[in-house]
Amino acid sequence: MKKPTLLILAAGMASRYGSMKQIQEFGPGGETIMDYSIYDAIRAGFGKVVFVIRKDFEKDFREIFDPKLQGKVEVEYVFQELGAYIGNRSVPEGRTKPWGTAHAVLCASDVITGPFAVINADDFYGRDAFVKAADFLNTSASENNFAIIGYDLLNTLSKNGTVNRGVVGMDATGNLATVTERLNICEQDGKIIADDGLEPREISRDAKVSMNFWCFHPFIFEYSKALFEDFLDKHMHEAKSEFFIPIVADQFIASGKGKIDVIGTDSKWFGVTYKEDAPEVKENLQKLIEQGEYPSRLWEK
Q1: Which residue has better confidence, 271 or 69?
Q2: At 230, which helix (H) or strand (E)?
Q3: CA distances from 108 to 101, 111, 123 (A)
Q4: DSSP code string of 168-196
Q5: Is the pLDDT of residue 87 over 50?
Q6: Residue 17 confidence class, pLDDT cut points 50, 70, 90
Q7: Which of 223, 285, 288, 299 has its CA 20 to 30 A from that of 38?
Q8: Is 35 helix (H, G, I), strand (E, B) or coil?
């Protein structure tokens, strides 16, 4: 059986963070957050890692990851370019922002031929999430069955500012019904509030959210291409328009093409939305090392 692939989205510009946080070192051995995701993926049974990056990130990424991953997992790099998959259209003048996460996934279509998972480069997802993703990809992924890893909202908030989260809505059978992007979420007086103009402002403390950990069959590429064409026709000249994975997921469900399982995880999520989050990330990793979840140096032979 062919091992699943891990697709890491690392082309984002990190505007709120203010630097290229994808390759910032957080572990005691200089590990990035991606190192921990890759380590968890390998021990869960993934056989290939694909990085989606900008072309100007390539040298840095290769210098960091090629030596440590050689002989451990197959690695490929693909580039999220503004001209990719836009046909005979021209990139709007002044556009520098990538087209979004679903477009990033499309950019990997030439190098992925089997079931695969998608994650963000700058989020720590935890071992349990990768184990459950691998199990789904090996046993259940198909053209009409995808999955999303659902995290407890309370475990994804930042002490250093508001966050944006895709709040998961489920149907009567427990499958994904909607992913509603809520903005400027924080805890206020014991309540979880989204200050984004939408109602209800208060979000349930028990809500599950998407941290952009998806499990797909390669059919997603063919399906997304048509939706991206429609997106470009309607939104291409909007300076900040983005083609997000939840847009594709919502259409997949609404069209009746199939279902998306919601797979809960016991893993604790943490990330670096703000520079001020960095010390807490390092502290959390050190705790996991002390608990024996990870070695102090991930890639030492």
Answers
A1: 69
A2: helix 219-235
A3: 11, 6, 20
A4: EEE-TTSBEEEEEEEEEEEEETTEEEE-S
A5: yes
A6: very low
A7: 223
A8: helix
- CA-angle at 214, arms to 212 and 218, nearest 5°: 135
Q: What is the pTM of this model?
A: 0.91
User: C-alpha angle 185/188/193, rounded to 5°?
Assistant: 35
Angstrom distances, CA of residue 124 to CA of 56, 268, 294, 295? 24, 8, 13, 16
Angular region, 156: left φ>0, alpha ψ -120 to 50, beta rest: alpha
253: closest CA among 202, 180, 162, 153? 180
Distances (CA, A) of 152 to 100, 171, 203, 267, 268: 24, 18, 12, 9, 9
Give the SS3 label for residue 76: strand
Place of tokens 């508001």: 162
The residue assigned the tokens 């979880």 is 192
Chain-wide mean pLDDT for the chain?
91
Q: Are 259 and 253 in contact (CB under 8 A)?
A: yes
15 band by pLDDT with thresholds 50, 70 and 90: very low
Q: For residue 195, what pLDDT band results from cuts at 50, 70 and 90?
A: very high
Cα(139)–Cα(257) distance, rounded to whole angstroms?
19
Using the structure block, give the residue that is written with the tokens 């790099």. Answer: 77
Contact at 8 Å (CB) between 175 and 256?
A: no
CATH of domain 5-151+210-290: 3.90.550.10
- pLDDT at res. 16: 40
Cα 164 to Cα 224: distance, rounded to the nearest angstrom: 23
